[in-house]
Fold:
Amino acid sequence: MAKKIRSDPKNGVLKRVIMIFFDGIGVGIDDPEINPFSRTRTLLSYFSHEGRIQEGPENGFMAAADATLQIPGIPQSATGQATLFSGQNAARLLNRHLPAFPNAHLRSLLREYSLFKQLGAMGLSTAFINAYRPLFFKLTEERQWCLSATTIAALSAGLPFFHIEDIIQKKALYHDFTNAPLIAMNYDMPLYTPEDAAATLAEASKPYDFSLYEFFLSDRLGHRQDMNKAEELIGRLDRFLKHLLRLLPMEETLVLVASDHGNLEDLSVNTHTMNPALILGWGHGARCFVFGIQSLEDIVPAILKQAREIGNAHETLHL
Structure:
């Protein structure tokens, strides 16, 4: 008999959604020889033989999302992320998987369907929490539009970008939340523990209905096939997530983790994988969110569905 999946908590009203994008994490096999998530059980340790929808620790839920987008070939970053942040099938638009940064077609897609833009049209406040180095602000706007899918999604909604100085004020996080690369470049920054970073994200997200944070070292390490460093990184991500969940009022917060394709879960290859992308949810509406996910195309519609509760609450306040 199938195991009964617990329900979402009934108390509380959704006030905040925090989405964390971990690049290159899929749902693979439970084999410690190739899968670093098998070596120590963490909040990110889910395996394909246990089903497409699973319950997890800290009252979490997992969905394994198809990353192939019904197009032959190995899933890639530009098409996967453009889909993840638009709700449109970017691979079908191009009839192929595209690596690295979006091309002109995908930039146009994000201009029209950016998740930030769609949430803004609902009257919700949004933020891309990542801090950028000074070099970014020296680029022409045309050059900025040629960067990552997340950058394009934020530009499409007219969002301001955070500076590295905003990290000190707990308004933003660097893509490596420890700040180690910034310190190595002689920026005067504190070396963050995962707990420090979680506290910053909890604080930085307070003013917004929806916040996005991007972390892409997971994909880089997958390509390097270094098991020891992968284990260390997963340990840091686990500590980061656990502390974040402890700090937040989960009865009124939805915390999401989403990836674009597999990679880190199979270190036997130095490429991306055909495994489904890891999608996680905790807190208010997590079960409902996860149960709506079968493909990367479903992420944005599922977020918009949950976010309507925030919009309805705003309308009630103004009656």
Remarks:
- The chain has a mean pLDDT of 95.
- The chain has 14 helices and nine strands.
